From TrEMBL:
Keywords: Oxidoreductase. This is SDR family oxidoreductase. PANTHER family: DEHYDROGENASES, SHORT CHAIN (PTHR24321), ESTRADIOL 17-BETA-DEHYDROGENASE 8-RELATED (PTHR24321:SF8). InterPro entries: NAD(P)-bd_dom_sf, Sc_DH/Rdtase_CS, SDR_fam. The keyword Iron-sulfur does not apply. Belongs to the short-chain dehydrogenases/reductases (SDR) family. Pfam families: adh_short_C2. It comes from the Bacteria.
Length: 263
């Protein structure tokens, strides 16, 4: 990533922050764009060459300014990493199934996650064509499997997956790749707040490792997709969930039943 310029939206958050640190270690110059501007500024202060940008993904002008300001500051753009999402305990508590869905919450989720991502891609593409750069979108395991929670969030992430493929199809010929990373449950401070231990332990029981993923695990996957090592990969979703979604559900009780035999 030496000399590459990367924008990370939600860069002040758990996964975005870990990715900003990793990419900086690998020689990139990062723009940390977040609605939590103070946190973005604090992190940028710790990372050589980093720039903090105040971003509100609900506002078109704010998104377009993020792209323009990054290019003005660094002189180029190599990677747009769309990592921010509308999250938080209150959001998660109220986003359940469609029958009980509050329309304002649905619209806001789509505004931040889908419309915000689209506007960012649209504004970044002319610059990415110049550098033969790429886009990495953070989606979720919930975009790929059904659940009783987060119908708005999960379907918005599924929309981003299809947007990923559409951009890859349209812009590959111009040298621009577009991929997605799909984290499973990942141990960020925000996640710990939103999901109490029994729910985290239930998911842990379904992983094929002995622990849930850490933000650094997702950062590694995103950094790979953003790098030239992934030059032959586009339009793909890289699932980074410790194998949770790779098997028939209910592996924890099966492990207990066959303890010692297949374990
Ligand atoms: N942690 C997990 O278990 C998990 C699982 C699957 C997917 N993800 C995805 O990973 C990404 C990062 O999430 P995280 O776990 O680090 O959570 P996080 O809450 O720590 O990070 C999200 C960041 O997005 C920012 N943000 C929210 N609304 C914004 C807006 N309108 N404009 C600009 N920035 C905004 C927040 O301020 C925050 O810094 C998200 O896309 C999330 O959906 C996380």
């Amino acid at each position: 990533m030496d000399g590459k310029v990367v924008i990370i939206t939600g860069g002040a958050g758990g996964i975005g922050g870990a990715t900003a640190r990793l990419l900086t270690q690998r020689g990139a110059k990062v723009a940390i764009a977040d609605i939590a501007f103070e946190a973005a500024r604090t992190l940028a202060g710790e990372l050589p060459g980093a720039l903090a940008i105040e971003l509100d993904l609900e506002r078109q002008d704010s998104i377009e300014a993020m792209i323009a300001d990054t290019v003005t500051h660094f002189g180029r753009l190599d990677v747009l990493h769309n990592n921010a999402a509308l999250l938080g305990p209150d959001i998660a508590r109220n986003d359940n199934d469609v029958e009980s869905m509050d329309l304002a919450l649905w619209d806001r989720t789509y505004a931040v996650n889908v419309r915000g991502t689209m506007i960012g891609c649209r504004a970044a593409l002319p610059h990415l064509r110049e550098t033969r750069g790429n886009i990495v979108n953070t989606v979720s395991n919930l975009a790929l499997q059904g659940h009783i929670i987060q119908a708005a969030y999960s379907s918005s992430k599924a929309a981003i997956i299809q947007m990923t493929r559409a951009i890859a199809a349209s812009h590959g010929i111009h040298g621009v790749r577009c991929n997605a990373v799909a984290p499973g449950m990942t141990m960020t401070p925000a996640l710990r707040e939103a999901f109490p231990p029994p729910l985290r332990e239930a998911v842990e029981g379904e992983t094929l490792r002995d622990q849930l993923g850490e933000p650094e695990d997702i950062a590694e996957a995103a950094a790979f997709l953003a790098s030239d090592a992934a030059r032959n990969i586009t339009g793909q979703v890289l699932v980074c969930d410790g194998g949770c979604a790779s098997h028939v559900p209910g592996i924890a009780p099966f492990r207990a039943f066959f303890a010692g035999e297949h374990a």
